[in-house]
Amino acid sequence: MLHLLSAWNGRPTGRVSVRTLLALVTIAPILAGACSTPTAALDPIQAPVTSAPELRTACATFRERQEIVGMSVAVLEHGRVAFAEAFGFADREREKLATRDTLFRLGSISKPVTATIAMQLAEEGKLDLGADLRQFAPDLASRLPRMSMQDVLSHTAGFRHYRAGRVDNSTTHRTTHEALELFLADPLLSAPRAKYSYSTHGYTVAVDVMEHVTKQSFVDLVRARVRDRVAPTLDCEVLTEAKPARSALYEKKESGDVLHSAVREDNSWKYGGGGMESTALDLARFADAVRTGKLVTAAGRDAMWHATTLADGTTSNYGLGWRLEPALGEVMHTGSQQGANAVLVIVPEDELVFVVMTNTLGTKPQALVPRLRELVRAH
Fold first, then answer.
1. How far apart are CA 375 and CA 322, in angstroms?
2. From start to end of 111-245, where are the E strands?
3. What is the C-alpha end-to-end distance of the chain, expressed in Å?
């Protein structure tokens, strides 16, 4: 069973079975024509909302107090760009200012993108999210117990997360199969659907399954299904592709020092769980495209935005790739990794999207969102 989080008011509205949810998803291709066509043109920056000066001041003050080197903020209201500005430096050492075009790392906000692509494949009849995933990826058949893509995307499959002495955070480029070898030999923390255990590694399994069913690389899937449709800069961070707009990376230490991370880690081993990059505005456009049914149908969106019910009947506050905050009426995700802290928040009832991206690990951009909501609500 899954517990329904209303897409419009953030309050529980009832219970539906997994079978019912997935049935809704499988009939969605009838309506998918409206979701599959690329957008003709991206919305321009609209005239600043009345609260823009207050928003600008709040952002600038927050950046200074948090000692964030560079930050970009985007706010969409009713599908329109209400606010999009950058603050500080994209590269402090070179005195290069951050702009709306600066690329920041998404960290774990990559997970909603991955889940959205999985839902697209389900709506097209190419993938059954509730079925045993081993049937789609023969390389996993002898290495995993029965589990579904739903289990993986909701962090209930039992895979471990990072651990001490990890070797994944390096400059080595890894294929999906090489990334699987980082963790597949380790025992599961629990049986699938027994408990919620957050795992970036689990999303590598999801990527492997999607690559098998589509015969495409995950990089190509992100580009064809998200980047080229709604968000021109949202992409996997492929380090062999030079992008001058990429921000430099920094970390705020407990001592208070903010240090430059000169060697950029290669995140190819976790493209699906934490290896993407984007401007703040394009990340907001992606989120709004999910909200409005441009990337998946309303049924698919609502399936992703349902809290997961575990085997013992309890629920987690995580759907399929999205974290749920029903008390706040929010669907959201945060991201944290080398040279990045970021947050993405959707307020469905108010048709609002907030994105705050930084190039400074050790900061808390999510703490800015309540103030942004307050200012937008006031006007």
1. 25
2. 235-236
3. 40
Helices (H), 28-81: 33-36, 52-66
Tokens of residue 136, six digits: 């789609």
Q: Shortest CA distance to 332 belongs to which of 342, 345, 320, 319?
A: 345
Q: Please calculate the CA angle 16-319-359 and round it to the nearest 5 degrees.
A: 165
φ, ψ dihedrals at 313, nearest 5°? 95, -10
How far is the C-alpha of 8 from the C-alpha of 251, rounded, in Å?
A: 37
Angle (nearest 5°) at CA 228 between 332 and 300: 45
Phi, psi of 75 (to 5 degrees): -130, 125
| Cα radius of gyration (the chain) | 20
User: Which tens digits make up the pLDDT trace of 82-133?
Assistant: 999 999 999 999 999 999 999 999 999 999 999 999 999 999 999 999 999 9
Write down all domains in the chain, each with its CATH number in brackets: 2-377 (3.40.710.10)
| Nearest C-alpha neighbor of 346 from the set 276, 277, 285 | 285
Write down the pTM of the prediction: 0.89
